[in-house]
Amino acid sequence: MTANDGYRCKNKSVQRGTCEYAKSEKIIPASSVTTYSNNEAICPGNTDHNKPCGAVLEKVIPQKKLPWMMIALSSATVLVFAVAMWLFLFRGDALLRVDQTSFILSPGQSTKVEVFNDGEVNLQLDNVEFSSDKFSTEITDDNSAIAPGESGYVRVKFSENAQDSIKGSMTIHSNSAGEPVSIEIIGNAKPWRVAEKLNSTSTILVKEKG
Protein backbone atom coordinates (compact mmCIF):
# COMPACT_ATOMS: atom_id res chain seq x y z
CA MET A 1 0.00 0.00 0.00
CA THR A 2 1.39 3.38 -0.96
CA ALA A 3 0.78 6.89 0.27
CA ASN A 4 -1.33 7.58 -2.82
CA ASP A 5 -3.78 4.73 -2.09
CA GLY A 6 -7.27 5.72 -1.06
CA TYR A 7 -10.83 4.48 -0.72
CA ARG A 8 -14.31 5.63 -1.59
CA CYS A 9 -17.49 4.99 0.39
CA LYS A 10 -20.74 4.44 -1.50
CA ASN A 11 -23.03 3.98 1.48
CA LYS A 12 -26.15 6.03 0.76
CA SER A 13 -28.58 3.72 2.51
CA VAL A 14 -31.92 5.16 3.58
CA GLN A 15 -32.29 2.76 6.52
CA ARG A 16 -28.73 2.98 7.84
CA GLY A 17 -28.22 6.59 6.85
CA THR A 18 -25.91 8.16 4.30
CA CYS A 19 -22.21 8.15 5.13
CA GLU A 20 -20.51 11.51 5.43
CA TYR A 21 -17.82 10.38 2.98
CA ALA A 22 -20.38 9.09 0.48
CA LYS A 23 -22.28 12.38 0.66
CA SER A 24 -19.18 14.51 0.10
CA GLU A 25 -17.59 11.97 -2.31
CA LYS A 26 -14.26 12.55 -0.58
CA ILE A 27 -11.43 10.08 -0.97
CA ILE A 28 -10.57 8.42 2.35
CA PRO A 29 -6.80 8.13 2.92
CA ALA A 30 -5.54 4.58 3.41
CA SER A 31 -3.99 5.61 6.73
CA SER A 32 -7.48 6.29 8.13
CA VAL A 33 -8.92 2.93 7.11
CA THR A 34 -8.87 -0.39 8.98
CA THR A 35 -8.21 -3.35 6.68
CA TYR A 36 -9.10 -6.88 7.75
CA SER A 37 -7.46 -10.17 6.84
CA ASN A 38 -9.87 -10.71 3.97
CA ASN A 39 -8.56 -7.41 2.50
CA GLU A 40 -11.85 -5.66 3.13
CA ALA A 41 -11.47 -2.03 4.16
CA ILE A 42 -14.14 -0.64 6.49
CA CYS A 43 -15.34 2.95 6.34
CA PRO A 44 -14.36 4.97 9.45
CA GLY A 45 -16.99 7.66 8.87
CA ASN A 46 -20.37 8.32 10.47
CA THR A 47 -23.80 8.41 8.88
CA ASP A 48 -26.24 11.28 9.04
CA HIS A 49 -27.98 9.21 11.77
CA ASN A 50 -24.84 9.80 13.84
CA LYS A 51 -23.88 6.12 13.75
CA PRO A 52 -20.66 4.46 12.52
CA CYS A 53 -20.85 3.70 8.80
CA GLY A 54 -18.90 0.43 8.73
CA ALA A 55 -19.52 -0.11 5.02
CA VAL A 56 -17.01 -1.98 2.88
CA LEU A 57 -15.01 0.56 0.92
CA GLU A 58 -14.10 0.61 -2.74
CA LYS A 59 -10.42 1.04 -3.46
CA VAL A 60 -9.49 3.99 -5.63
CA ILE A 61 -6.68 3.29 -8.09
CA PRO A 62 -4.72 6.51 -8.60
CA GLN A 63 -3.96 7.57 -12.15
CA LYS A 64 -0.36 7.14 -13.12
CA LYS A 65 1.40 10.33 -14.06
CA LEU A 66 3.25 10.18 -17.33
CA PRO A 67 6.81 11.53 -17.36
CA TRP A 68 7.03 14.97 -18.94
CA MET A 69 9.38 13.59 -21.60
CA MET A 70 6.76 11.06 -22.70
CA ILE A 71 4.08 13.75 -22.76
CA ALA A 72 6.29 16.02 -24.87
CA LEU A 73 7.12 13.18 -27.26
CA SER A 74 3.45 12.25 -27.64
CA SER A 75 2.50 15.87 -28.31
CA ALA A 76 5.26 16.21 -30.91
CA THR A 77 4.11 13.01 -32.63
CA VAL A 78 0.54 14.27 -32.82
CA LEU A 79 1.74 17.62 -34.18
CA VAL A 80 3.89 16.00 -36.88
CA PHE A 81 1.01 13.75 -37.90
CA ALA A 82 -1.37 16.72 -38.10
CA VAL A 83 1.06 18.71 -40.25
CA ALA A 84 1.62 15.71 -42.55
CA MET A 85 -2.12 15.25 -42.99
CA TRP A 86 -2.56 18.96 -43.70
CA LEU A 87 0.16 18.90 -46.34
CA PHE A 88 -1.33 15.76 -47.88
CA LEU A 89 -4.86 17.16 -48.06
CA PHE A 90 -4.16 20.81 -48.91
CA ARG A 91 -0.80 20.82 -50.68
CA GLY A 92 -2.29 21.50 -54.14
CA ASP A 93 -1.64 19.70 -57.40
CA ALA A 94 0.75 19.65 -60.31
CA LEU A 95 -0.77 20.82 -63.60
CA LEU A 96 0.74 19.82 -66.94
CA ARG A 97 0.36 22.10 -69.96
CA VAL A 98 1.62 21.66 -73.52
CA ASP A 99 1.14 24.49 -76.03
CA GLN A 100 2.19 22.42 -79.05
CA THR A 101 -0.82 20.35 -80.11
CA SER A 102 0.72 18.57 -83.13
CA PHE A 103 3.96 18.21 -85.10
CA ILE A 104 5.41 16.39 -88.11
CA LEU A 105 8.66 14.42 -88.21
CA SER A 106 10.68 12.94 -91.06
CA PRO A 107 12.51 9.60 -90.72
CA GLY A 108 15.37 9.96 -88.23
CA GLN A 109 14.24 13.45 -87.22
CA SER A 110 13.66 14.40 -83.58
CA THR A 111 12.11 17.38 -81.85
CA LYS A 112 11.70 18.73 -78.33
CA VAL A 113 8.21 19.09 -76.88
CA GLU A 114 8.11 21.75 -74.15
CA VAL A 115 6.13 20.78 -71.05
CA PHE A 116 4.95 23.44 -68.55
CA ASN A 117 3.97 23.01 -64.91
CA ASP A 118 1.17 25.45 -63.97
CA GLY A 119 0.53 23.72 -60.63
CA GLU A 120 1.66 24.26 -57.05
CA VAL A 121 3.88 21.18 -56.55
CA ASN A 122 6.54 19.44 -58.63
CA LEU A 123 5.33 17.84 -61.85
CA GLN A 124 6.62 14.27 -62.11
CA LEU A 125 6.77 12.85 -65.65
CA ASP A 126 6.20 9.10 -65.47
CA ASN A 127 6.31 7.93 -69.08
CA VAL A 128 5.31 8.80 -72.65
CA GLU A 129 3.05 6.41 -74.55
CA PHE A 130 2.94 6.34 -78.37
CA SER A 131 0.28 4.87 -80.63
CA SER A 132 3.07 3.46 -82.85
CA ASP A 133 6.43 1.92 -82.00
CA LYS A 134 8.03 4.00 -84.77
CA PHE A 135 8.13 6.90 -82.32
CA SER A 136 10.35 6.89 -79.25
CA THR A 137 11.53 9.05 -76.38
CA GLU A 138 13.48 8.77 -73.17
CA ILE A 139 12.73 10.43 -69.83
CA THR A 140 15.87 10.96 -67.75
CA ASP A 141 16.34 12.16 -64.18
CA ASP A 142 17.18 15.62 -65.52
CA ASN A 143 13.76 16.18 -67.08
CA SER A 144 11.53 13.87 -65.02
CA ALA A 145 10.63 16.51 -62.38
CA ILE A 146 9.49 20.05 -63.24
CA ALA A 147 9.12 22.68 -60.50
CA PRO A 148 5.99 24.88 -60.25
CA GLY A 149 6.09 27.69 -62.81
CA GLU A 150 8.93 26.04 -64.74
CA SER A 151 9.10 24.02 -67.95
CA GLY A 152 11.00 21.02 -69.26
CA TYR A 153 11.40 19.11 -72.50
CA VAL A 154 10.55 15.70 -73.85
CA ARG A 155 12.51 14.74 -76.97
CA VAL A 156 10.57 12.69 -79.53
CA LYS A 157 12.12 10.83 -82.46
CA PHE A 158 10.65 9.22 -85.60
CA SER A 159 12.36 6.00 -86.64
CA GLU A 160 14.87 6.43 -89.47
CA ASN A 161 13.83 3.03 -90.84
CA ALA A 162 10.15 3.95 -91.19
CA GLN A 163 8.77 2.99 -94.61
CA ASP A 164 5.22 4.30 -94.24
CA SER A 165 3.82 7.58 -93.06
CA ILE A 166 2.02 7.38 -89.72
CA LYS A 167 -0.57 9.61 -88.11
CA GLY A 168 -0.80 8.86 -84.42
CA SER A 169 -0.50 10.37 -80.98
CA MET A 170 1.75 10.62 -77.97
CA THR A 171 0.33 10.63 -74.43
CA ILE A 172 2.26 12.05 -71.49
CA HIS A 173 1.55 10.34 -68.16
CA SER A 174 2.38 12.24 -64.97
CA ASN A 175 1.12 13.19 -61.52
CA SER A 176 -0.79 16.12 -63.04
CA ALA A 177 -4.37 16.73 -61.97
CA GLY A 178 -6.86 15.58 -64.57
CA GLU A 179 -6.40 13.27 -67.54
CA PRO A 180 -3.07 12.52 -69.29
CA VAL A 181 -2.19 14.99 -72.08
CA SER A 182 -2.22 13.73 -75.69
CA ILE A 183 -0.60 15.36 -78.73
CA GLU A 184 -1.11 14.54 -82.40
CA ILE A 185 2.09 13.34 -84.05
CA ILE A 186 2.69 12.62 -87.75
CA GLY A 187 5.59 10.66 -89.14
CA ASN A 188 6.11 11.59 -92.80
CA ALA A 189 8.09 8.69 -94.26
CA LYS A 190 8.42 10.28 -97.73
CA PRO A 191 8.86 14.02 -97.27
CA TRP A 192 10.25 14.50 -100.80
CA ARG A 193 6.77 13.93 -102.23
CA VAL A 194 5.78 17.27 -100.78
CA ALA A 195 8.61 18.97 -102.64
CA GLU A 196 7.64 17.19 -105.88
CA LYS A 197 4.07 18.34 -105.50
CA LEU A 198 5.16 21.92 -104.91
CA ASN A 199 7.38 21.87 -108.01
CA SER A 200 4.60 20.47 -110.20
CA THR A 201 2.16 23.18 -109.17
CA SER A 202 4.59 26.10 -109.12
CA THR A 203 3.53 29.24 -111.02
CA ILE A 204 7.00 30.75 -111.08
CA LEU A 205 8.00 31.57 -114.66
CA VAL A 206 11.58 30.98 -115.68
CA LYS A 207 12.90 33.52 -118.19
CA GLU A 208 14.48 31.80 -121.15
CA LYS A 209 17.65 33.16 -122.64
CA GLY A 210 17.25 34.25 -126.24
From TrEMBL:
<keyword id="KW-0812">Transmembrane</keyword>
<feature type="domain" description="HYDIN/VesB/CFA65-like Ig-like">
    <location>
        <begin position="110"/>
        <end position="187"/>
    </location>
</feature>
<keyword id="KW-0966">Cell projection</keyword>
<keyword id="KW-1133">Transmembrane helix</keyword>
<dbReference type="InterPro" id="IPR013783">
    <property type="entry name" value="Ig-like_fold"/>
</dbReference>
<dbReference type="InterPro" id="IPR053879">
    <property type="entry name" value="HYDIN_VesB_CFA65-like_Ig"/>
</dbReference>
<keyword id="KW-0963">Cytoplasm</keyword>
<keyword id="KW-0969">Cilium</keyword>
<dbReference type="GO" id="GO:0005737">
    <property type="term" value="C:cytoplasm"/>
</dbReference>
<protein>
    <recommendedName>
        <fullName>HYDIN/VesB/CFA65-like Ig-like domain-containing protein</fullName>
    </recommendedName>
</protein>
<keyword id="KW-0472">Membrane</keyword>
<feature type="transmembrane region" description="Helical">
    <location>
        <begin position="68"/>
        <end position="90"/>
    </location>
</feature>
<dbReference type="Pfam" id="PF22544">
    <property type="entry name" value="HYDIN_VesB_CFA65-like_Ig"/>
</dbReference>
